[in-house]
Amino acid sequence: MVQEAEKIQLVIVQGPTASGKSELVVRLAEHFSGEVVNADSMQVYRSMDIGTAKPSAEQLRRVPHHLLDIVAPDQPFSAADFCREAGEVIADIARRGKRVFICGGTGLYIRALTRGLMESPPGDDAFRLELKELANREGNAALHRRLVALDPVSAVRIHPNDQFRVIRALEVYRMTGRPISQLRGEHRFGALRYDYCKIGLSVNREALYRNIDNRVDSMIGNGFLAEVQSLLAAGYSPGLKPLRSIGYRHMCDFLAGLVSFEEAVQLMKRDTRRYAKRQLTWFNQDFEIKWIEYPENVAIIEHIVDDYFD
Question: Comparing C-alpha atoms, which of 15, 22, 76 is closest to residue 45?
Fold first, then answer.
């Protein structure tokens, strides 16, 4: 009998970039007769393989993966799009009697999948432009000070340099007269859509940073620069959101003559480390995650998953 959507069991493997999620989830899916659903916001894009650290050909052979390479780099893809696509895939996997494993480091995608998305007011283009002009004149800190005054809870959560999220929070306050943090608190990201077990990979910080540096070196050695050159040659603008992501923007800056190659690589490593810290800040707000030291405790993780499915 096919499970109803809200009854489908999900094992969600999450953690910062370079923590080892891809290999672990393949191992779990092999052991428990499952399939993997990607929850990484960059791996959905076609022709962006090396820089997004997509699963290897060997990993893809071992177990089926879903929601990889589903949109072009110039196509918009939102958390709502992810929920829709993932919902269809998850239902199909369950219908075929397989276990569902979610893998990725995009916290918003996972939260949206498990809790649903809050209906937010439409944008106000004129107000958004006004705020961007303010930031250009006085800096991002001026925007953030506004947010501190209107919505201190969101101001703590949103970095002052995250201009997009700061502007959106101010926009929501203008449109509704209420802080976005309050609206989200009431919504609580909706009723539970699935039954799920969240496993977080806790990697020693020094080891994690070493993994990041080694991964960047491997990307460079595997032809990452050529991948970026191919994207630009295909007509994709370096200003596209996917091409402004970590790694891609650094290679684009090198190709534009803004930095040396060595500097681009070092900045890529630095910014990836910073991104991992932001991921951990997000994940640490989620008390549903069972954090397990990895890779030394693989057997414990397998035991947790086995108990969950029983």
Answer: 76
pLDDT by residue (tens digit) across 160-206?
888 888 888 888 888 888 887 777 665 554 456 799 999 999 999 99
Nearest of 58, 67, 161 to residue 106 by alpha carbon? 67
Question: CB neighbours of 241 closer than 8 A, spacing ≥ 6?
Answer: none
For residue 174, the domain's CATH number is 1.10.20.140
Q: Higher-confidence residue: 223 or 282?
A: 223
Domain residues for 132? 125-187
Task: Confirm if 225 and 232 have CB atoms less than 8 A apart.
Answer: no
Q: What is the residue whose two structure tokens read 């991948």?
A: 227
3-state helix, strand, coil in the chain (%, to 5): 55, 10, 35
What tens digit of pLDDT does each residue of 73-111 get? 999 999 989 999 999 999 999 999 999 999 999 999 999
Identify the residue with better confidence: 129 or 35: 35
Does 301 lie in the same domain as 223? yes
Is there a single domain that holds both residue 109 and residue 213? yes
| Number of domain units in the chain | 2
The pLDDT value given to residue 189: 47
Report the helix count and the strand count for the chain, using DSSP H and E.
14, 6
Whether residues 105 and 154 fall in one domain: no
Query: What does DSSP assign to residue 43?
Result: T
The label of the residue with tokens 């919505």 reads 151
